[in-house]
Structure formats: C-alpha cells, structure tokens
C-alpha cells in the first residue's frame, strides 16, 4: 500500500493493492511456516528415531510435543491477515492522499507494536526489545517499499 501510495493518489488502487497484499502475504506466510515446521518436525522425528535406537526413553515423551505444520500455517496466515486488515480499513475510509498515508503508517505502527508485545508475552521475551524489533522491521519494510516504488515509478515513467 505504501509503494502504490508513493506514486498514485487513487484510493481504489491502494485498496486493491492492500487486499492483494493481504491475500498474497497471508498465503506466503502460511506456506513458509508450513515448510519450516514440516522441516522442524522431520528433524525432531529423525532425532527421536536415533534416540530410540540408542535405547533412550526420551523419544516416547517427545511424540506428543511434535509441532503441527497445518496449525502453524493457519496461525501465521491469520496473524498476517489481521495485521494487514488494519491499514487496509484505514485506507478505505480516508480520501485525502497525505492524510491516508499518515493514518496507514500510524495504524500499521500500532499494530506492529501490539504484535511485538503479543509475541513477547507468548514467548516470554523482553517486551520492549521484541516490540521495538517488530516495529523497526515494519518501518524498514514500509520505507523500502515506498522508496523503491517512488524511485521506479518516477525515474522510468512506469504507468502507476
């Protein structure tokens, strides 16, 4: 949304891109999480088999703790979609271009902090450090997308 906003003021274009980003981002996160957790699960199963061959009783305890790739993929997709819908809704109701961009950045920033805090609480990690990392990462992504699209859109006469 920030990229398209850098070269086009039309609210419809921003909403279409925001929705496409929500769907594609949620799918990408889900697929990435699924592949990652499947790999983690395979490694853990192989480790349990090695322990079983050695006669260790730990392998029986780990059967119940194996990660679920489908559950992880759904959780990741849902988290991404919830985070993406916040700026999308903001953009849908604000017609003035510069105000819309400022509100999208502000609301996305609040959502990033909330996700950082939630992740810290769930993971038992320092809240300020976790939320700052998520916030700065989000700002970097928004700034990079905005800047690169502006650069490409203005220098090369792209029809955005």
TrEMBL record:
GO molecular function, one term: iron ion sequestering activity
Record-level GO cellular component terms: vacuolar membrane
Family of this protein: Belongs to the CCC1 family.
Subcellular location(s) per record: Vacuole membrane
Membrane topology: Multi-pass membrane protein
Organism, scientific name: Gossypium gossypioides (Mexican cotton)
GO biological process: intracellular manganese ion homeostasis
Record function comment: Vacuolar Fe(2+) uptake transporter.
Main localization (coarse): membrane
Membrane-spanning residues: 12-31, 72-94, 101-122
Record keywords: Ion transport, Iron, Iron transport, Membrane, Transmembrane, Transmembrane helix, Transport, Vacuole
Pfam families listed in its UniProt record: VIT1 (PF01988)
PANTHER family hit by this protein: FE(2+)/MN(2+) TRANSPORTER PCL1
Record protein name field: Vacuolar iron transporter
């Amino acid at each position: 949304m920030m990229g398209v906003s850098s070269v086009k003021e039309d609210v419809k274009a921003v909403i279409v891109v925001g929705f496409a980003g929500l769907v594609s981002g949620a799918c990408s996160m889900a697929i990435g999480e699924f592949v990652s957790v499947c790999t983690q699960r395979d490694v853990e199963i192989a480790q349990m088999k090695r322990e079983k061959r050695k006669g260790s009783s730990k392998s029986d305890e780990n059967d119940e703790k194996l990660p679920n790739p489908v559950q992880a993929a759904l959780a990741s997709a849902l988290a991404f979609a919830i985070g993406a819908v916040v700026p999308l809704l903001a953009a849908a109701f604000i017609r003035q271009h510069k105000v819309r961009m400022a509100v999208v950045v502000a609301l996305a920033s609040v959502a990033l902090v909330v996700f950082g805090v939630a992740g810290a609480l769930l993971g038992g990690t320092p809240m300020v450090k976790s939320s700052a990392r998520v916030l700065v990462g989000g700002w970097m992504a928004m700034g990079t997308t905005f800047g690169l699209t502006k650069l490409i859109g203005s220098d090369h006469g792209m029809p955005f």
